[in-house]
Amino acid sequence: MSEKPIIGITMGDPASIGPEIALKALTESKIYDICRPLIVGDAGVFNHIIQKIGLDLSINTIQSVHEAKFEFGRPDVYDLNNVNLDELEFGVISAMAGDASFKSVTKVIELAMAGEIDATVTGPINKKSVNEAGHHYAGHTEIYAEYTGTKKYAMLLVEDSMKVIHVSTHVSLRQACDLVKKDRILEVTELLYNGLISLGEKNLKIGIAGLNPHAGDSGLFGTEDDQEILPAVQEALARGYDVEGPVPADTMFSKAATGYYGGVVAMYHDQGHIPFKLTGFKWNPEKKQMDSVKGVNITMGLPIIRTSVDHGTAFEIAGKGIASPDAMVLAIESAVQLAHHKTTATV
């Protein structure tokens, strides 16, 4: 890539820590050393945050990517002008905030699909606010899938040695069990393999979790492991992938945390998220807040690059100036790495 990639960063929910962590990430000069960051959202919200928490920044408000200056200390904000500051309340669910966050997402998708930016990074949204605004999606992943016309996709979580992809995410646990099917497991295994290569991972050994306790224990605790997961593992091996499974999830994640696997396949949302967040989220019991919140969410299978922080809106600390930008910094760095790999792969 002859020039540093342009990375579009969404505002997230304006009532959340989203705008704060976006701005804080851009106070780190190393971000400007590796890319040209561009925030997409309401410029008034970002000016308000700067004043409220005392950041040494000034906003460059723009209406097109071509107007961006990419100057450290003066972040560019592609202004959607869709938040009424008189009505905005930190930590409060509202249709206005949901609509604003949704439109910042669809705008960066539009810019990426048009080739005006090289990758997208999303701040946290509140699903209830988005749905109250009339946009009925389970989360970012589903928005991206629809607006890019993508049918085969999956959520990949990345934090140091832990890389986790999911067979299903935003569905009920009952539905999640029903979605454990051979073809889907093979699909996400391939997406994980491609993701590991894109991230420069040398260890391509993949662990595939069992669904039931002890991976079903030969049918004693359920049949999905023998009837759906094992055949998927056998087919993946036949296709040349270095896979192991079904591995009881408690054992698999213990090994994954040490780097034994390059990446792992989880069968459902919490099976993957809980061990992942145990490694990346650091709670300070004395301060009663997170010291660090690390972890990147990458949507695999899209025609464009999308990374995200892997934490929520943190409404309880919104507007207080104490939110950690660690995950946002990592998400931007991952987007840059993926952008470089995509350019190299297409040359």
Automatic annotation (TrEMBL):
The keyword Oxidoreductase applies. It comes from the Bacteria. This is 4-hydroxythreonine-4-phosphate dehydrogenase PdxA. Its EC number is 1.1.1.262. GO terms for molecular function: 4-hydroxythreonine-4-phosphate dehydrogenase activity; metal ion binding; NAD binding. Keywords: Metal-binding, NAD, Oxidoreductase. It holds the Pfam family PdxA. InterPro entries: PdxA_fam. SUPFAM superfamilies: Isocitrate/Isopropylmalate dehydrogenase-like. PANTHER family: 4-HYDROXYTHREONINE-4-PHOSPHATE DEHYDROGENASE (PTHR30004), D-THREONATE 4-PHOSPHATE DEHYDROGENASE (PTHR30004:SF6).
